[in-house]
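Let us work through a complete example step by step.
Step 1: write down the sequence.
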Amino acid sequence: MDKQQRKKWEVKFTPDKEKYIDEISSGTGLCRTMSKLLVNRGYTDVKSANDFLGKRTEILHDPFLLDDMEKGAARILECIKVGRKITVYGDYDVDGITSVSILYLYLSRAGAEVEYYIPSRKGEGYGVSSEAVKKIASGGTSLIITVDTGITANNEVEEAKALGIDFVITDHHECPEVLPEAYAVINPKRSGSKYPFASLAGVGVVFKLLCALEALKSGEPMIECVRRIADGYSDLTAIGTIADVMPVTDENRIIISYGLSLAEYTDKIGLEKLINLCRSNETKTTKQKVKKKLSSGFIGFGLAPKINAAGRISDASIAVELFLTKDESIAEKYAIKLCEINRERQLEENKIAEEANEYIENHPFDKSGVIIIENDTWNHGVIGIVSSRITEKYSLPSILISFEGNEDPTDPEAMGKGSGRSIGGMNLVNALSSCSDLLEKYGGHELAAGLSVKRKNLDEFKRRMNEYARGFFGGEAPAPALDIDCELDTDEINLSLASEISMLEPYGVSNPTPLFVLRDAKIDDIVPVGMNRHLKIRLSKGDFSVNAMLFSTSTEEFSLRTDDTVDVAFNLEINDFMGNLSPQMNVKDIRMSESEYLKELENEKAYEDVKSGVSALDPSDIIPTREDFALIYRFLLKEAREGRDEYTVTALLYALERSFPDVSLNYVKVKLAIKVIRELNIISVEEKDTKTYKFKFTYSKNKTSLDKSNILKTVKGMYPNK
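Step 2: predict the structure and record it as tokens.
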């Protein structure tokens, strides 16, 4: 399969927006770049800009506007009053874990007899199951409250009724046409809902339930009840909302902002331990309270993966117990355990990613379809993360399916569990719905979903999913795009701007982290970090230099080389190393600079013209001489001895020009020389991709004559009289 397409960079700040900048900059006291960011987000006057920055435009809505909220909350309080046992039934991701935790904490503090149940991802899979309902019933439960799950549990709710158990469902996933006949179904996505905001996370719905419970229980004004619930539970609510990639708009913006502030000084000893452990490179925790301001980025990329790892490859209850415990030694143990599990997850993820990428490169895929790969042994809990990486790399929707756990994975009745990610606006749940007759179970969001499919239905499932995608994309590959806020000059990449843009926090969907472009920078150094899972790149332009981090990319996956001239799309951050602050780029895309890219296209066309015999170039500008071959050979030998054995044609040409400024070389000559060297095996040449070559020297007593080259004979024969 072809490598990742060159993404289309769409710069949102256009000249017609310039008219707003002076007013906003002078009226807010912010720099011009910050003003551009506000205009890009729709705030084109001083008042709207200040309202957004001050979070004065958002409100928390009345929880009783949610369908069945009053009915469900009343039923829960009745069970608490008469001492009936309640089971909180959750999901094993961060949203589910935080949902279980805050509801369990609230109910136990309210005097309820309460337990929680989270199914095993590996053994039970996603959602409510009949087996789980029976197991819970045997423990004497009268009421099951689902959190972040349950909206498709029609059959399980009926089975629970037969066992004398009521269901209160709280969920935020897409609703089916027919809802479960539970005692209450609380979901902002219900058809005809009057609730003003449909994009709450699962834990956000539970947060609203706690507000309703507090109001009914205390009889006090809602504003006082909301304040108490926010003070007690918004830290975990914010973490779950960020981890589930919910839009950072409306009341989510308030919940996340307040929750992040609360988490800095959380009273939950387990959360404090985990935060401190993440900040001390996973080696030890500290008793010191967290002082540094938390960010949504830290939660999304630092904290959430460790919480998530428990449910993915181990037991989600480890994370729940971390948040519930009041014992410092137990909290320490669980926090360290989560970090250990996360390291295991990373190793497993990388292994699966390597296998999936190898399969993709060796099998043709429809460029307007869906990448669907199955495997008999992949860990169910990790394939969703790998699917995200596949979709990002190839700019196509992807679904990974594992038949792990089946006695005979090849049996037609063997059950595969899949996880998928989408792109280009294709709603993955809708796509799966078009194949619902082939699936045992499916559900999720527009861009991420899970499914279960039997082996016998797999081929037809692949065919119909690709048919759906081709129809959606019009038979053309979805164009990968990156929304850029604006371009920056080197003098704008500084600590002042990096600090100022933090005023836009919290970031997320609908309020993305500002994305900038620096053009025509030079790569000075590339250093692998984190066991070669990430790269640290040193960039320069004139007298300016800066460090850039490129995550989830190894040296083998990175096609650019030192001395390449590049354009970089990046987030601007502050790097704090031993108290020394410096601006740092977090790279989202890096590629050959536009000017170099166009030049390379011209060079490649010139080379193709030579191959076709239609070049207007003089033979002396086409055919490398013996002296050229000798010079290139000596240069590559010197480089190999110093550990540099990979070059693109362009990079090799520039390196030769720097080393031998008086020698006349060009792209066509150098590429022809490489092809001849490979043909005659003068040097072992591995073509790593369409642009990159790896050179390996082996000793040989025999000298090779250039006259034996068929390539040279052919080229010389094409231009005999020029």
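Step 3: interpret the result. The first strand starts at residue 8 and ends at 11.
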